[in-house]
Amino acid sequence: NESPRTRQGAALALGRLGDPRAAAPLTACLKDQDEAVRSQVERALKEMELKPFIEKGTHMLDVASADLNGDGTTDYILVLENQWQKPEELRIEEGPRPLLILLRDAVGRLKSVKRNDKMIGSTETLEGADDFGGVEAGVKTFTVHHGGSYGNGQAWSTAYTFNYSRIDKTWQLVKAEEYRGQRSNEEEINEVYTPPKDYGKIDIADFDPATYLWKGER
After folding, report:
1. Closest CA to 180 of 205, 155, 152
2. Which is the most buried residue in 107, 113, 124, 156, by most CB within 10 A?
3. Which residues lie closer than 8 Å to 107 by C-beta, 6 or more apart?
4. Can you tell me the distance from the alpha carbon of 165 to that of 68, in angstroms, rounded to the nearest whole number?
5. DSSP at 11
6. 146, 135 in Cβ contact below 8 A?
7. pLDDT in tens, 156-179
8. What pTM value is reported for the model?
9. Separation CA 52–CA 60 (nearest Å)
């Protein structure tokens, strides 16, 4: 089709169907001359592979890919949220938004190995504004961002970084950054919390941003 918008829509629909037969034509579209179409095709291919992990009644809020455990393969961090019954109405409903870590096994299959229901936060607490800022992933590390404003010109943000431990075979909190300040950069407050001074070993599955300080084995 000559319309990039139509090609984007087709890629989105094929990705959501999750039919393995669509993989070949989608892969061919990675050479599309339109950057937005290529981006949507990449997302559709990811959705096809991730579909078994997208729980009923949810949709994919965010996804990041990297070699999360240092074994040389591509893994995923998947964030889900509830959706309304009609697929076209991707509006937020109340409820937890789980973060899943998906690792690739020796034969290339994905497996869910860790889950956290408190990291992203329940949509009940968002007061009409979504404070989730996305996930960044790298080799054996990832960071989850949140941020927003209080309505009086004061902004805030948090960044929680987890690294993979080969000894414990899991991801543990290694740095928590919290910022509060005026948008004019006056009266800024920047706090950086690290182990073992501020907390001990905290597994991603056990992390709660409301209670993590001074917790964990030291």
Report:
1. 155
2. 113
3. none
4. 10
5. H
6. no
7. 899 999 999 999 999 999 999 999
8. 0.80
9. 12
